[in-house]
């Protein structure tokens, strides 16, 4: 017995009331509920629809949907980072490697414009922090109040990883006068900042790629 649109909406509203905010996760569980309900209603059309939804919910165990959501979150996060890193690798292959080399040498030449080279590296740090917060706030604020998707909820953990790398770079960086006038020291740290910039760009690229995919899959929930 195939469920009608109203019955599907009842399942969706029930799951929403259970605290499942992510549309993509909710739709997967809706499919599970619908398949189970169709089989049960085929055998017994007189079943109480709402009570049957509650019975199926209990079959998920004492933790309810928590284990499922945790498992989905880990899987989606892993995929997001993998996609970001794979995209980062493209900047070390033709033709994008030309952009990487150009960015590196552009920054390396710029250091000569600074009398105090510490200020140059503070500038690089400021750019990294700006890029990270731009990704975090521009995406989150623009999508605030809209339907939430687990696939698109990776900006905060991604920002934490990115910011962690920025702080690590600051922690291990030797800013002594001798080091600042060492070409190898400067080249290595400029290279690290270039990697950070590209990594942040890749995270944003994958976010918008996923957003397009979500828009195609869930056209009634999200508009780009």
Summarize the SSE layout with pairings.
Elements: H1 5-17, H2 23-43, H3 49-58, H4 66-89, H5 96-110, H6 117-142, H7 155-172, H8 177-180, H9 183-217
Helix pairs in contact: 1-2, 4-9, 5-9, 6-7, 6-9, 7-9
SS element count, helices: 9
Structurally, how many domains make up the residues? Answer: 2
**Overall pLDDT score:** 89
Total beta strand runs = 0
* Fraction in beta strands: under 5%
Major sheet summary line = none
Which overall shape is indicated by the principal axes computed on the Cα atoms?
A: elongated
N-to-C span: 36 Å
**Structural class category:** mainly alpha
Helix content: over 70%
Q: Runs with pLDDT <50, length 5+?
A: none
The topology string of helices and strands comes to: HHHHHHHHH
Q: What is the rounded Rg?
A: 24 Å
Task: Explain how this protein is built.
This protein has 224 residues and is mainly alpha-helical. The chain has two domains: 5-64; 73-217, no CATH class. Helices cover 74% and strands 0% of the residues. The chain has helices spanning 5-17, 23-43, 49-58, 66-89, 96-110, 117-142, 155-172, 177-180, 183-217. Helix 4 (66-89) crosses helix 9. The radius of gyration is 24 Å and the shape is elongated.
Summarize the structure.
By secondary structure, the protein is an all-alpha fold. Helix content is 74%, strand content 0%.
């Amino acid at each position: 017995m195939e469920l009608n649109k109203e019955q599907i909406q009842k399942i969706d509203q029930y799951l929403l009331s259970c605290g499942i905010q992510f549309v993509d996760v909710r739709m997967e569980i809706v499919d599970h509920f619908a398949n189970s309900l169709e089989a049960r209603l085929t055998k017994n059309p007189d079943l109480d629809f709402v009570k049957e939804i509650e019975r199926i919910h209990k079959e998920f165990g004492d933790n309810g949907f928590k284990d499922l959501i945790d498992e989905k979150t880990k899987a989606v996060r892993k995929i997001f980072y993998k996609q970001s890193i794979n995209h980062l690798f493209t900047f070390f292959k033709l033709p994008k490697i030309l952009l990487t080399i150009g960015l590196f040498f552009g920054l390396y030449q710029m250091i000569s414009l600074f009398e105090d080279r510490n200020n140059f590296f503070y500038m690089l740090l400021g750019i990294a922090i700006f890029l990270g917060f731009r990704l975090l706030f521009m995406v989150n604020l623009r999508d605030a109040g809209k339907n939430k998707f687990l696939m698109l909820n990776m900006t905060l953990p991604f920002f934490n990883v990115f910011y962690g790398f920025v702080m690590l770079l600051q922690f291990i960086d030797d800013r002594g006068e001798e080091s600042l006038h060492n070409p190898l020291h400067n080249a290595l740290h400029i290279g690290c900042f270039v990697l950070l910039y590209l990594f942040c760009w890749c995270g944003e690229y994958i976010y918008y790629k996923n957003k397009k995919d979500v828009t195609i899959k869930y056209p009634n929930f999200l508009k780009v």
